[in-house]
Amino acid sequence: xxxxxxFALLITIATLTVGHAQTLDKAKLDQFFDRLAEKKKAMxxxxxxxxxxxxxxxxxxxxxxxxxxxxxxxxxxxxxIGSITKMxxxxxxxxxxxxxxxxxxxTLDKYFPRVPNAGxxxxxxxxxxxxGIHGIGGDPEYRSLREKGANPAELLTMIEKTGTSDFExxxxxxxxxxxxxxxxxxxxxxxxxxxxxxxxxxxxxKVWLKDTYxxxxxxxxxxxxxxxxxxxxxxxxxxxxxxxxxxxxxxxxSTPYDLVKFxxxxxxxxxxxxxxxxxxxxxxxxxxFGMDVVEFGGKTYYGHTGGAQSYxxxxxxxxxxxxxxxxxxxxxxxxxxxxxSGIFDIYWNRPFQIPTFDTLEVSPEVLDxxxxxxxxxxxxxxxxxxxxxxxxxxxxSGSAPxxxxxxxxxxxxxxxxxxxxxxxxxxxxxxxxxxxxxxxxTKEN
Length: 445
Fold this sequence. Notes:
The chain is an alpha+beta fold. The chain folds into two domains: about 80-345, Beta-lactamase (3-Layer(aba) Sandwich), CATH 3.40.710.10; about 365-445, Lipocalin (Beta Barrel), CATH 2.40.128. Helices cover about 30% and strands about 25% of the residues. The chain is built from 13 helices and 22 strands. The strands form five sheets. The chain has a nine-stranded antiparallel sheet, with no helix packed on it. A six-stranded antiparallel sheet has the order 2-1-13-12-11-10, sandwiched between helices. A three-stranded antiparallel sheet has the order 5-9-6.
């Protein structure tokens, strides 16, 4: 028996040793990011950590571009991380549960009685996006605050004024920001402190995140905060959105280094109890409490994604390997999921061909047939197509021009966000497609 145990132990140690001895192909990762930068397919910052130690980091592109200067992204550049904020908010709510100041079975009417259907919606329903709370994203009042922002009380009033609930709590999963706007408000209500004060006390000061905080204004380059960019004729800055509108659902600013520290500390039990972590990681419809899962190469990673404008972020953790990855971008031209998939293929030494990003060249004579302003009855936007050399550009109702990529002589795309245009020059029409949506626009005379 002793011999068998010794042999089994040796096999286990050997297996673990092989896993930890894996060599990361840093040169190939560098080549991948060099290509993304060269072809202007991304700007951003990546950190990979294992056993709470950084094993790779890379930055490409610029955080601020002016007529006279391009400020390179560095490890200290701070990005808006969008919905990864929900992980932080969920952790703060679960800290209150750990402290016996809140129960997951509490209904919302105890705290926000004017929210429609509050008497049936539990905290657990809200944390798991199973509340039925009606969205305010399309509300004209909400959209009118994009530039000046809103305080938490205004956001609550807008949710209360919807006067309706979309479905019975617990009956299905529908992901909405409103759930975590309310959870941020709940943290403030129960503690008597601001969201930022709770973030500092409960998380950032506890695990030493020096570059993580809640957005309180438009991007500030004086704080190493990046602007958001699209690529048209050159890099074009997105119009500002006041990120206070996203609050506990998407308002945090951070760096990849801080994000890998956060998720590692979370899984190490340094932020919430093991019991609360188990709740956070128990998935239904691939979502737990402020956390989701994604699979790459047969391995399941816990974390979250985020994005708005051209900002994008991805945070992933593989518990059995104590492997953490965080990527933040301020120019998500090549789909972020494809970048993350490529990184993990390289990390695990799986076959991966670095994309060439070669594009189809269409002659200027053909492109000129598509140039013009296109509109459709009942649609409040127009598309203006222009040509420069062998490139076709599109402007949406006078916004900055975006470069289109040709996939055929009469077919072009913007990806992301996955918009496709197909021209019929003989009819003077262009068909706009996105997902299952389709609309035909006609060239104006």
